[in-house]
Amino acid sequence: MTIRDYIAKMKGGSRSPPGVAGHEVLWSWLGAAIGIGICGYLSSRYFEPNDLSLLIGSFGASAVLVYGAIKSPLAQPRNLIGGHVVSALVGIACYQLLGHTIWLASAMAVSLAIVTMLVTKTLHPPGGATALIAVIGGTKIHDLGFLYAFVPAGTGAVVLLVVALVVNNLSSGRRYPEYWF
Question: What is the pTM of this model?
Answer without folding.
Answer: 0.94
